[in-house]
Write a structure and sequence with these properties.
Length: 203
C-alpha cells in the first residue's frame, strides 16, 4: 500500500505521461491535415485517400480512423486552414516586411484555402445548416485578420483606403471560381493583379 504522498506522485507521473501523448496525437493530426490540404490544393477534394496517406507518410487506415468519411476530412481541413490563415496574418505583419507584402502573402494562403472551400459545398450537399455554420465561422475568423492587414497597409501609405476586407475577400473568391475546372485559367495571376492594383499610384 502506498501513502498519500506516493499516490500523489504516481498520479502526477501518470498525468505527465498523458499530456505528451495528447500533444503528440494533436501534432500528428495537424500533420495529417496539412498533408490533406496540400493534396486538395493540388488535385481537388476528390483526390484519392491513398494520395493523402502517401503525402502524410501514414497508412490509409490511419486517415479513416480519424476521419470516417470524406466530408469529415474536408470539414477538418477547412477548419484547420481557417485557423492557419487566422494565425498567419499577425505573424506576417510582425515579420518586419512591408504591410502590402504581408497582405499579398496572406492572400496567397487565402487562395489555397478557397480551393478547399469550393469543394465543401458538394461535400455538405445534404447539410445546408452545417455549411452555413462553417461559413459564419470562416467570416468571423478571417474578416478581422484581413481588416488588420489592410489597415496596416493603408496606414503605411502603400495602398488605397477605399476597400473593405469583405470586398477584397469576395473579389479574390470570385476570381478563384472555376479555376479547378479549367486548366487554362490562372486564378493566382489575376489575384496578383488585384493585389498589385491596391498600390497607390505616384502622383
Amino acid at each position: 500500500m502506498t501513502d498519500n504522498g506516493e499516490a500523489a506522485e504516481a498520479g502526477a507521473g501518470a498525468g505527465a505521461a498523458v499530456r505528451p501523448r495528447r500533444a503528440d496525437a494533436r501534432r500528428n493530426q495537424e500533420a495529417l491535415l496539412d498533408a490533406a490540404a496540400a493534396v486538395f490544393v493540388a488535385s481537388g477534394v476528390e483526390a484519392p485517400v491513398r494520395d493523402i496517406a502517401a503525402e502524410a507518410g501514414v497508412g490509409t487506415g490511419t486517415i479513416y480512423r480519424h476521419f470516417p468519411t470524406r466530408a469529415d476530412l474536408i470539414i477538418a481541413v477547412y477548419r484547420h486552414q481557417v485557423e492557419a490563415c487566422a494565425e498567419a496574418g499577425p505573424a506576417l505583419l510582425a515579420a518586419g516586411g512591408s504591410p502590402h507584402a504581408a497582405l499579398g502573402q496572406w492572400i496567397d494562403l487565402f487562395v489555397d484555402f478557397l480551393v478547399t472551400k469550393h469543394g465543401l459545398a458538394a461535400a455538405l450537399r445534404s447539410d445546408q445548416a452545417g455549411f452555413e455554420t462553417l461559413h459564419t465561422y470562416f467570416l468571423d475568423r478571417l474578416v478581422p485578420v484581413c481588416s488588420r492587414l489592410l489597415d496596416a497597409a493603408v496606414a503605411s501609405g502603400e495602398i488605397r483606403s477605399d476597400l473593405t476586407a469583405l470586398e477584397l475577400m469576395h473579389g479574390v473568391g470570385n476570381l478563384c471560381i472555376g479555376a479547378d475546372s479549367d486548366p487554362r485559367y490562372d486564378a493566382r495571376r489575376l489575384v496578383e493583379v488585384l493585389v498589385a492594383g491596391l498600390l497607390r499610384q505616384p502622383r
